[in-house]
Write a structure and sequence with these properties.
Blueprint lengths: L2 H16 L1 H23 L27 H4 L1 E2 L12 E9 L4 E8 L12 E9 L2
Antiparallel strand pairs: 1-2, 2-3, 3-4
Length: 132
Amino acid sequence: MGKASTSCVLLLSLLTLSFFVPKTSANKQLQTLNKLQKSMFFRGISQTDRSEFEVEEVVLDGIVDSQKGLKENDRIGKLPGQPQVSFSQYGGYVTVDKVAGRAFYYYFVEAQRSKHTLPLLLWLNGGNQQQP
């Protein structure tokens, strides 16, 4: 048997063995998931939360500062390095604690069509950050 044939057989053997590694890993994951599901079932924990979602109105007795002109001040005309877009986008800070100077950064994009009836998605980022 030549050197090339030996290398080929060795490579083929390694390739064949490599197919079994993901299979074993997947089997372990499946076994772990099944174990979790069985333990939840026997403890009476439902796999799916089927409770009805209830909207609650939260009224905070906080001080609301004037919002006049803030929307236009937060409008983003164009993001650096990005093409011009046909929708309005806003970014800025929502004050959480004025005394401590804490605020969330938000990024908001209006829908291109039917913006008054489509759902709202608002991205808040931050936490214990200082307002600029």
